[in-house]
From TrEMBL:
<keyword id="KW-0805">Transcription regulation</keyword>
<keyword id="KW-0804">Transcription</keyword>
<feature type="region of interest" description="Disordered">
    <location>
        <begin position="1"/>
        <end position="25"/>
    </location>
</feature>
<protein>
    <submittedName>
        <fullName>TetR/AcrR family transcriptional regulator</fullName>
    </submittedName>
</protein>
<feature type="DNA-binding region" description="H-T-H motif">
    <location>
        <begin position="46"/>
        <end position="65"/>
    </location>
</feature>
<feature type="domain" description="HTH tetR-type">
    <location>
        <begin position="23"/>
        <end position="83"/>
    </location>
</feature>
<dbReference type="Pfam" id="PF00440">
    <property type="entry name" value="TetR_N"/>
</dbReference>
<dbReference type="InterPro" id="IPR050109">
    <property type="entry name" value="HTH-type_TetR-like_transc_reg"/>
</dbReference>
<dbReference type="InterPro" id="IPR009057">
    <property type="entry name" value="Homeodomain-like_sf"/>
</dbReference>
<feature type="compositionally biased region" description="Basic residues">
    <location>
        <begin position="1"/>
        <end position="11"/>
    </location>
</feature>
<dbReference type="InterPro" id="IPR001647">
    <property type="entry name" value="HTH_TetR"/>
</dbReference>
<keyword id="KW-0238">DNA-binding</keyword>
Length: 206
């Protein structure tokens, strides 16, 4: 499975996509929607409330997003984006041979969901009722898994023959990164990805 490729810059929360006021307004709308969808849920958040939170006219929301669903789709598409590994499997400049824990930790810091608990909450809250969100969650899981497995292969070149163990390790780390909000709601404890990276490294015998 290949991750998606895109030539567009994908801004994060609070980042403008360009230098003019209109583009900055779009970013404020998405920031407001992200916060509100995480707090209240999609169904309980009106377009008018998004506009008030973003401090823009309601008509400007419809200018960028003709339907409220378009706001949700833009959020999950742009703010859970994971860059594609290149054809050679590159794009992992922070992988260090002999340091799987550090390699996984650095990978986690580069992924958008590590910095956005709100987007994790939105993904899980809306996946049950919105097909586009559920499909994106599935793709995201696959994308992160591929990068985690490749990172471990680079960090542990001698272990490439033991693909089963590497895949279990990559799947475990992916689950912690993507599902940590869901796990915390069940257990009441937040898992630290850096600590999990250390445990994985020890389990792999490093």
């Amino acid at each position: 499975m290949r991750t998606r490729s895109s030539g567009k810059h994908r801004p994060g929360p609070g980042q403008a996509e360009g230098g003019d006021g209109e583009v900055s307004s779009r970013t404020r709308i998405l920031d407001a929607a992200e916060a509100l969808f995480a707090e209240r849920g999609y169904e309980a958040t009106s377009t008018a409330r998004i506009a008030r939170r973003a401090k823009v006219p309601k008509g400007l929301v419809f200018h960028y997003f003709p339907q409220k669903m378009d706001v949700l789709v833009a959020l999950i598409d742009e703010r859970t984006f994971v860059e594609e590994l290149d054809a050679s499997g590159g794009g992992m400049d922070d992988a260090v041979p002999g340091d799987p824990a550090g390699t996984l930790s650095r990978l986690a810091r580069r992924l958008p969901l590590r910095a956005s608990p709100a987007m994790r909450r939105i993904l899980f809250r809306e996946a049950d009722t919105h097909t586009s969100v559920r499909e994106r969650l599935g793709r995201l899981n696959g994308e992160v898994f591929l990068r985690a497995r490749h990172a471990l292969e680079l960090a542990l070149p001698g272990a490439r023959g033991d693909q089963a163990r590497l895949e279990v390790a990559a799947a475990t780390f992916t689950a912690v990164l993507i599902y940590q909000e869901n796990l915390a709601s069940v257990t009441g404890q937040h898992l630290d990805p850096d600590a999990v990276a250390e445990l994985i490294a020890r389990a792999l015998g490093t």
